[in-house]
Amino acid sequence: MNLPVTRQAAAPALALAVLSSFVSSAFAQSADTVLVTANRMPQRALDVIADTTVIHAEEISRSGAGSVADVLQRQRGIEIARNGSAGASTSVYLRGANSNQVVVLLDGVRIGSATSGAAAWNAVPLGTIERIEIVYGPLSTLYGADAIGGVIQIFTRKGEGGPALGASAGLGSNATRQLDASVHGAGSGVRYVFSAGHEESDGFSATRPGAFGYNPDKDGYRRRNANGQLSLALAPGHEVGAQFLHSDLRAQYDSGPGPYDVHNEQDLNTAAVYVSSQFLPNWRSTVQYARSDDKLGSFTSAAASGASQIDTQQDELTWQNTIALGPDTLQVLYAHRKEDVASSSSAALTRARITNAYAAAYSARRGSHLVDVSARHDRSVYGNKNTGAAGYGYNFGNGWRATASVGTSFRAPTFNELYFPGYGLPTNRPEKGRNHEAGLRYDAGPVQFDATVFRNRLTDMIVNANPCPGRTGSCAYNVNQATLEGLSLSAETRMAGISLRGSLDWQDPKDETTGRQLARRARKHASFMADYTVGTVKAGAELLLSGERFDDAANQRRLGGYGLLNLYTSWQVTPDVSLLVRVNNAADKQYELARNYGTSGRTWFAALRYGLR
């Protein structure tokens, strides 16, 4: 599939997602899949050098998952930790990198807390997602601070075809219930989609005996969301658009045996407007203004207001120009980002910072040779940072391709690490990363294979230093070095109605200063999937495996390895109606993702869907 020049020009992901929304596939990227995130423009997977994975709508719909993190956990290179049910605080580790070392985008809008540095995974609604693109390795040259481990971009459904309605209803264990509804369409230069959803569960105890604040009651959650997108083609090659998403989460947690209902209230809001113009046949320019809000408060039934409230607001203006130069592409980018934090518990955290960035990227295609180079300059209160990256790929033919790349990255200190009373140090510097990797890929018809070896060396790691230089007690301090290295393998095939997929990850996420394994990251983990389709019925099984981990940096509290078996079946009753039945943790395995925090035993979930892919 060849993309016309007028559609190849880069734009922020909101506009680009519209251009590539017609692409679908039952599995991870094949040669015809179009990717957006790896180079900030739509490209065939065959032309992308970066190591990537795509989670498509079919896999998301059959997941029966309670959160985006549950879907991500089944992918190669990804591990999660969670303090309870699907509504609890969640960390996502990409190739061993921390949650705050991964950039998360929602339809091109950056989300996350400026105080913790991590995205609110538990607040992202699952029912509205069309696909997820995962790009492994440093992408600071394209996305700026924090893209050390990679970038995860979530795309919601797009408007297409004639006016259509979609709806789903689901029930499951722990009194889980879900409702989603949407309307979408396209015509006369207009694309639109609007959806809303509600999810609620009684949950299970967030903590186990021995945990601080243990209470054996059930800790449930409720998540509500609404989102929409609207775009208008003003003239051939000229488009304006807007999008929004609102999600509010209320999640209970344990805070001792008292009678009070203690819960977090997490609100996630994003909004963006853009103008994309094809000024010349080889030049597209796109301007986008986006805002995201991450609000977190802790409440009790006996309190009229939150015990604490932290609000993060991010405003970002990007101007992206893409110029086609024969078979090559030049991108020039300017980005202005402002972070505002308001805290009810600490006046020191209530402040703002601004980052201005300039970047350029060049992609060349010469026969079987692929070359990408990029550079970026970021300027902020934490100093000036320059990053660069270069990648090379060679197509041998017959589906075989080899790639190699190098890149530098950085993570900006969070507001907590800079200003939190008794912990932060205003002199903390950004963490720095330097990554080298090589890959071998095979993609021929029904068979795909991918092998990647990587080594990401991190310096100036910010850790909890005790004693703290210059004062008593502990503090956040640039003191450690770490190495994230490993080998990632994945393969999949389809034959005679049977689909098979598997991945294996061997890694060594190590703190070089102490010689210890980084907390909550295993040295090996794997996933396997098999399903069989007969007519309109599909049945399948998933197996997730993880080795032992440690819950602390000192490697004193061991978390045992585990294996989880999930079973599912789906029936396409009519072209518009489908039924899903799923059993997660079918063997009722007892395991921990974080020490003394609860995980779900055997659960079931059933959903009836109309008009949803």
TrEMBL record:
SUPFAM superfamilies linked to this entry: Porins (SSF56935)
Residue ranges of domain TonB-dependent receptor-like beta-barrel in the record: 191-585
Database matches in InterPro entries: Beta-barrel_TonB, Beta-barrel_TonB_sf, Plug_dom, Plug_dom_sf, TonB-dep_rcpt-like, TonB_box_CS
Membrane protein topology class: Multi-pass membrane protein
Principal location listed in the UniProt entry: membrane
UniProt keyword terms in alphabetical order: Cell outer membrane, Ion transport, Membrane, Receptor, Signal, TonB box, Transmembrane, Transmembrane beta strand, Transport
Pfam families: Plug (PF07715), TonB_dep_Rec_b-barrel (PF00593)
Motif (TonB box): 33-39
All copies of domain TonB-dependent receptor plug, residue ranges: 47-151
Protein family per UniProt: Belongs to the TonB-dependent receptor family.
PANTHER family linked to this entry: COLICIN I RECEPTOR-RELATED (PTHR30069:SF53), TONB-DEPENDENT OUTER MEMBRANE RECEPTOR (PTHR30069)
Name recorded for this polypeptide: TonB-dependent receptor domain-containing protein
Source organism of the structure: Massilia consociata
Taxonomic classification: Bacteria, Pseudomonadati, Pseudomonadota, Betaproteobacteria, Burkholderiales
